[in-house]
Design goal:
Layout: E1 3-9, H1 14-27, E2 35-40, H2 47-51, E3 55-63, E4 66-67, H3 69-82, E5 90-97, H4 102-115, E6 118-119, E7 124-127, H5 133-150
Helix pairs in contact: 1-5
Length: about 150
C-alpha cells in the first residue's frame, strides 16, 4: 500500500506556483516508488485529508510577518478534528518570505507543537527577491520528504 504525502500550499503568484511544482517534481521522483503525492489548496483541505496523511508538507507565503491567512484557516478548521488523530505526524514546511520568515516559522511551529506533530526536515525559508535556487531547494525538499517516508525513516 502506498503512503500518502499531503502537500497543502498557498500559491498566490506565478513564482509560488513554480515552487510548488518543483516540490511536487521532487516528491514524485521515479526513484520513490511507494508514495502517493496529494496536493491541496488550503480551502480544499479537510480534516479527513490530514487524518489520512502519512506525512505533510505545508507551503505558505509570509504575510505581514505571519503565515498566509488561508494556511491559518486550515489549522483553525482542522485543529480539533486532527490533533488527537495525528500526534507524531511527520511534517515540514516551506515559506516564501519577502523578509526573514521568522514570524511565519514561529507561528507554524507553535501550532504544530500544539498538535504534537513531528518536524522531520529543517523548514525551507526562501528569503528576499525571488531566486531560481528556490526551485532547486523546493525540489530537494519534496524528494527528501518522499524518499524518507518511502524508506520508513519518518
Amino acid at each position: 500500500m502506498k503512503k500518502r504525502l499531503l502537500v497543502i500550499a498557498h500559491v498566490p503568484s506565478e513564482n509560488t506556483q513554480r515552487m510548488l511544482d518543483a516540490l511536487i517534481k521532487g516528491a514524485s521522483d521515479d526513484r520513490v516508488e511507494n508514495i502517493e503525492v496529494k496536493v491541496l489548496k488550503p480551502l480544499n483541505t479537510q480534516p479527513k485529508d490530514i487524518n489520512s496523511a502519512d506525512a505533510i508538507v505545508i507551503g505558505t507565503t509570509e504575510n505581514l510577518g505571519y503565515m498566509a491567512g488561508l494556511i491559518k484557516d486550515v489549522f483553525d478548521r482542522c485543529f480539533y478534528d486532527c490533533a488527537e488523530n495525528t500526534e507524531g505526524l511527520p511534517f515540514t514546511f516551506y515559506v516564501r518570505a519577502g523578509h526573514d520568515g521568522t514570524g511565519t516559522r514561529t507561528a507554524i511551529q507553535s501550532i504544530t507543537t500544539g498538535m504534537k506533530w513531528r518536524l522531520v526536515q529543517e523548514p525551507l525559508i526562501c528569503r528576499g527577491e525571488f531566486n531560481h535556487d528556490f526551485l532547486d531547494q523546493c525540489e530537494k525538499l519534496g524528494l527528501t520528504m518522499a524518499a524518507s517516508l518511502d524508506a520508513g525513516i519518518i
